[in-house]
Design goal:
7% helix; Jelly Rolls; globular; 2 helices; six-stranded antiparallel sheet; three-stranded antiparallel sheet
Amino acid sequence: MSMEIKSLTSPDETRTFDKGKLEIAKHGGVTIGRATFQPGWKWSECVKPIVGTDSCQASHTGYQVSGRLHVKMNDGTEQEVSGGNTYHIPPGHDAWVVGDEPVVFVDFTGMTDYAKK
């Protein structure tokens, strides 16, 4: 195996959906995704119609670059992720952008099938 360097400005795959996009880089069996969600984005309104589940079933682990993302778990637990935070969000949640700044994050575990038709 050799070293491999890629840029998310030239992703292997781009998925677009209402008020958002996902740029994917694949390295062997690892999928890294940079997500950008615009103000007004909400998982249950913008991604749920694509995947058809009641809540997001991906497990996310990553680093949030900018913006504020409110996350509500199926059990009612709620937290907000902000730029500069790392996070782990288990399956079974909804999320939405808070405020007027886009949310940008890099996710290392939950993007293989995210928003995939």
